[in-house]
Each structure stands twice: as C-alpha cells, then as structure tokens.
Amino acid sequence: MKNLVLILALLLSVGFARAEELLSPNGNQKLEFEVIDGQPVYRLFYKGEAVIKDSRLGFDLKNEADLLNDFVVDGVKRSTFDESWKPVWGEVSEIRDHYNELAVTLNQTTTDRKMIVRFRLFDDGLGFRYEFPDQPNLVYFVIKEEKTQFAMPGDITAWWIPGDYDTQEYSYHKSKLSEIRGLMQAAITPNASQKAAGPTTVQTALMLKTDDGIYLNLHEAALVDYSCMHLNLDDQDMVFTSQLTPDAVGDKGYMQAPCTSPWRTVIVSDKAGDILLSHITLNLNEPCKIADTSWIKPVKYVGVWWEMITGKSSWAYADVPSVQLGVTDFSKLTQNGRHAANTAHVKAYIDFAAKYGFDGVLVEGWNEGWEDWFGKSKDYVFDFVTPYPDFDVDEIRDYAASKGVQIIMHHETSGSVRNYERHMDEAYQFMVDHGYHAVKSGYVGDIIPRGETHYSQFIVNHYHYAIEKAADYKIMVNAHEAVRPTGICRTYPNLIGNESARGTEYEAFGGNTPDHTTILPFTRLIGGPMDYTPGIFEQDVSQYNPDNHSWVNTTIARQLALYVTMYSPLQMAADLPETYEKYLDAFQFIVDVPVDWDDSKVLEAEPGDYITYARKEKGTDNWFVGRTNDEEPRTSEISLDFLPEGEKYLATVYHDRKDAHYKNNPKAYEIEKFAVTNKSKFELFCASGGGYAISLIKVDDPKALKGIKKH
Ligand code: NOJ
Ligand code: CA
Predict the structure, then answer these.
(1) Signal peptide span per the entry (predicted)?
(2) What's the rounded Cα separation, in Å, for the pair 14 and 344?
(3) CA angle, 501 as apex, 496 and 503 as ends, to 5°?
(4) What is the helix (H) or strand (E) element at residue 401, kind and residue range?
(5) Which strand (E) or helix (H) includes residue 441?
(6) DSSP classification of residue 104
C-alpha cells in the first residue's frame, strides 16, 4: 500500500511536471515550457540539440513583490499563423509570417497577479514576450530588472561589443563567452558619450556559434515604450540575463497594464546565411500604421559630409568658442573659410548628384550653432530652422528642384532631446516648406535631460515620437546615435535608416577593423537597415586633411560590395565628388546599384570572415552580387544558379587584383565583362580587406553580347 501511494505520488508529480511543447512549422525548432518550483522556465532545441538550456523568466519589481516565483499555469492557448505581407521597401518583396504559438497564462498564487508569456516558434527561431493583462492586483508597476535568462549550451563563441547605455559605436570582438570579462576593458574604446553596463555585459543583436556549428542570434523586436535590453553574462554557468537600461533615477521601466514587453528573439540555424535572411524581427512587429506610404521612397544620396568627418572642412561657420542662438549675430562673425555648407559648394554637390542620377544631397552644418555644439551639455544648441548667412535655403531649394534632386535635412540634436522636442513641429514644418522629404537626425554627446542615457525607456519613447511625428509631416527619418533598431520600420517604414553602430565615420577617426562589415549584418543589421555610408575610394585620409593620418581599411572593390552586403533602402556614396571623378569606371557600380530589392540570397557567409549576397533589383530582372572579406585573402566560389533558366546576362565584375591589399594596395581593382547564364560559375580572388561586386544585367537581344567573353 505504502509503495502504491509512493508510485502514485511519483506519477502525479511527473504528470504535473510535464512540459508544454511547441514545434515550429517544419519541426526543426522545439520549445519547452514548464513551471519548476513555482518558477517559469523555457528551453529551446534545434534539430534535437539543446541551444537554450533551462532558462527562467520574470521580473524584479520596485516596491512590491517580484514576478519570479510562486507561479502556476492558469491556462494555455495554442494557435498557428501563416500569412504573407509586402514591405514598403526591403530585401524581399514579400515576407511570410509563419509560426506556431503558445500563450501561457501564469498566476502568482501569493499575490493573485497574472502574466502571460507568449511564445512564437518560427522555422528560423523563437520570439517571446511578456504580457500583463488588465487585472486588479497589477496596474501600475515599476521594473527594477527584467530577469529573462538565455542559458547557453556551453562556453560557445560570441561576436560581441561591450554593453553600454549610451553607444554601440564599438568594434566587435570574437571570443569564447568565458573570455569576455578579460577582454572587456580594452574593448571599451572612447566615445562622445558612453556608460559601460558591466564587466560581462554585452549588447544585442548578439551573434553566437556552438562548437557543433549551430548559429544563434539574440536580440529583441518591437522595442516600444520600454528600455533597451543588454545581456549580462554569468560566466561561471554561461547564462545570459536581460539587463535593461536604467533611467536617470535608476528605474528600468514604468508600466501600466494592460501592456507588453518587447519580443525577445532567438534566431537559430546550422547555416550562417539563414540568420542573415531571417525575418523574425520584422514579423514580430506590428503591420504598417501609415495609411498612405506613397511618399516613402528608398534614397541613394551623396552629401556635404565626408569632408567634415575627415577634418578637411568644418560644420561651423566661424572659429569662435561660444555662440548663443538669438543673441549672436552670425553675419558679423569672421568666417573660418572652411565652412562646407555654403550655397556655391552645395550647388556643386547638386550638380554631381544630378549628373550621376542620385536622389539626394545631404547637407550638414547648414544651420547656426555648430561653433560650440559638442561636449558643452548645452540645452539650447540648435533651432533647426536658422541657416548660416552663407547658406541660401531658398536658392538651394529652387536649384535642387530644377535638377530633380532632393536636399536631405540634417538635425543634429547634440543629445539635447528636450530641445529637439521643443522645436520639432517647427523644424518639420520648415522641411515641408523648403521641399525636404528626409531628415538625418543625430544624438551626439550626453543626453539632456541630464542623467538619461541614449537607451532608456524615456529616450526610446523620444525616438518613437520623432518617427511618428515625422510621418505626420510625410518625412523619412535616418537617426544616428539612436537606440539600435528592432524592426520598427515594418510599422513605420518612414524610418529608413539608423546608424546605431560603428559606421564608416570611424575610418576617419582611426579606422574600422577589416572584418567589421563581415560581422555587422549578423549583429546590428538584424534589427534593421544601417546608414553605414560606404563608397570611400581614397583610403589615405591625409589626402584630404594633412593632419588626419587615419587609413580607411578597405580595398575599393570591397567598398562597392557594401552596397549589396549592407542592406539599406538608404545608401550614401560617401566620398568626395572629385575622387569619384578619378575612378569613374569603378564608380559606375555605385551609379547602377539599386536600393530596393525583390529577392535576396546569401551565397557564402561566416561571421567575421566573409559574406556574399546576391540580390534582385525591385521590378527588374537584374541582379547584383557583393562580397565583403576580412583580412585573410580568400577565393570566393559562387554559382549564378539563382538567375532564371535560359536567360542571358551581361556580368560586370569589379574585383580585387591579385596584388590588392587594404593597407598597401587598396586601389588595385580590375573590371571585367562576361556573357553569363544560370550555368555560370565564378572563382574570384578576394584580397585582404577586399571583396568584389558584380552587376548582372539581363540582355534580351543576344547581339548586345557580341564580342563579350562567355563565362
Ligand atoms: C555623428 C554622425 O554619425 C555623423 O554622421 C554626423 O556627421 C555627426 N554626428 C555630426 O552630426
Ligand atoms: Ca555616429
């Protein structure tokens, strides 16, 4: 009898402990969820292998009981979803949103508070979020910390940057998880605003690889009214726990039910290319909220920019230590002679843009206030509507319009979010009145209100406010130094770009590592497009500014590849017009390459080593291929089997010469033309820090290929 009771008790406990299982539509991913000793726990398997081990879920709350323990499952709902949608712009023209869902309602027995964890399992990974339904015992609450765990399957490899509440402008490190602590201090390189988040805290999107060759990517989707998540590693047990960005008083989130957290995402595959092609981040965002999107258009642009970044020219009009808007009479200041945003010079850029078919010209330094914009924590630093005396806004508007070119507005806020919000309506109205349709905004330096950082809930809400308000004015936004994107461009496709990582500008501030662009698509670009500003043909920055000895760590051929490998509907040709005029044969690729696509394929990829993409231009039969390579010379082997059967194409191949090298021979490129079909294959040399680009233009009349080598 005693034994029977024991057996029964055992059976019952096994019965209670049975985990809820969820499979992805193709069965490759399996999620398990259960409550163990009152704590919600999930785990994830890929093709039978545990990729996220037992990981707890919940929250530490301020001034009330935590949402971590004493839970029971109060209900479980399962569903399936399979729909396709068309992005306004993108890497593909149609995206399938296909998942199986498990929504678990948890009740905390000691407090009678409810929390739903909603899991969506796609063929390429997992998304889950917390939901707080309307209920009497949990209405207003303050998050002390989110305690979502991601238990790693061992001491695996990561491509990471330091956790920081103010910047993502770091170089990536590849290391074992256990090595992060030892590398952290050296990884925190200087920035205009930075606040390190901890000795083992890293940022998302975090790219990982197991010893068995399974790729994992941890990020978040739909970061709305919540603070940005970092990942804090327990490097004994190899468990990451979410670490939210605190606000000025140290709190991490002010919530009012009903509400939700952003989605936490785990993209998983045994193919690196699948991570790049995953649409989980977009799929977990809300559908487009802008009714008429006809005014949202991808943009290829040049700009009055690199000359300031290199120090050849200046944003400021005068070299004076202090100015005050509304007080200083700028027309009385002595001009420094290096102010690039002057009417004549901007017109020359407009001419260049018109000659080569660019959509836009970005002009920075056009407005009063740049003399002391940086590092002074000035509240009222810019008004966003008052041009310098040598920038004739009407003349430029008319000239640009006559040439069919758009001027792209620039709103540097200098981190003074308060000041920007105060001027935003007037600033956007000024744009409408002067024919501007896109703005590059920026948040250099420490945030005002003081004590806030770039990624707190409060400031995340500001970036969102700016995007929504811009949509009211039919303005497209490209925000620099803002929080890294989380797929919000699905909901607000007027968010056509973000920086939120170490961009090309750092090539003029000492340089980016040659492998940088082989990592960014696996990390920063998982959340959305980056305004990386490629196209630098002159590596020796001292050619522009004798005092700047930076070197752009790339071959010219690799710069061309970036227009394909760094997906963005907003692409800049960042170098100076006079430099492009010297290399017009290579520049032709930048002229030809589109910024919007019907289809994208990854031909080769390994984070930190190389990426080769092929993409089909939106609305045409033309394809473009780009390959970015790290510091190790390699041979890329690709097949053009993605081309349609039986069709003929003219391939123009822009590749590194055998003697090319990013340091000592970066301009050694060769351009070759071939007649190709979908049976063609290429073996192409990629130099150290090099790569290649190929345009594939469909030829209807075979005579057009006369005299061109078949390949
Ligand atoms: C930093 C941005 O990333 C850069 O593109 C811009 O030129 C400067 N801020 C000045 O606003
Ligand atoms: Ca920047």
Answers:
(1) 1-19
(2) 79
(3) 85
(4) helix 393-402
(5) strand 438-442
(6) E
Q: Which of 493, 578, 508, 514 is nearest to 549 (CA)?
A: 508
pTM above 0.85?
Answer: yes
**What's the 265 CA to ligand 1 centre distance in angstroms?**
30
Q: Mean pLDDT, to the nearest integer, of 320-349? A: 98
Q: Give CATH for domain 20-283.
A: 2.70.98.10
- Predicted confidence (pLDDT) per residue in 187-241, tens digit: 999 999 999 999 999 999 999 999 999 999 999 999 999 999 999 999 999 999 9
CB of 531 closer than 6 A to ligand 1? no
What lies within 8 Å, CB to CB, of 8 at 6+ separation is none
Ranges in the chain annotated CATH 2.70.98.10: 20-283
Strands 113-122 and 49-56: unpaired
- Indicate whether residue 364 lines ligand 1 (CB < 6 A): yes
Distance of CA 442 from the midpoint of ligand 1 (Å): 6
442: Cβ below 6 Å to ligand 1? yes
Nearest atom in ligand 1 to 308's CA: 7
Q: Which residue type sits at 158? A: A
Q: Any catalytic annotation for residue 505?
A: yes
Q: pLDDT tens digits, residue range 3-55?
A: 555 555 444 444 455 899 999 999 999 999 999 999 999 999 999 999 999 99
Which residue shows structure tokens 């901007």? 346
Q: Quote the ligand 2 centre to 476 CA distance (angstroms).
A: 19
Element (H, E) at 460: helix 457-472
* pLDDT (0 to 100) of residue 17: 55
| Matching residue, tokens 């990829």 | 605
Can you name the CATH fold of 299-599?
TIM Barrel (3.20.20)
The average confidence (pLDDT) of the chain is 97
For ligand 1, mutation pick of 372, 444, 484 (most atoms within 8 Å of CB): 444
Considering the chain, tell me which residue range(s) the CATH 3.20.20.70 domain(s) occupy.
299-599
Which residue's CA is the closest to the ligand 1 atom numbered 6?
442
Nearest to 165 by CA among 183, 142, 191: 191
C-beta of 444 in contact with ligand 1 (< 6 A): yes
CA–centroid distance, 480 to ligand 1, in Å, is 7
Tens of pLDDT, residues 499-509: 999 999 999 99
Question: Based on C-alpha coordinates, what's the Rg of the chain?
Answer: 26
Looking at residue 14, its pLDDT comes to 44
Answer yes or no: is the C-beta of 499 below 6 A from any ligand 1 atom.
yes
Pick from 630, 631, 669: nearest CA to 537:
669
As a whole number of angstroms, the longest Cα–Cα distance in the chain is 102
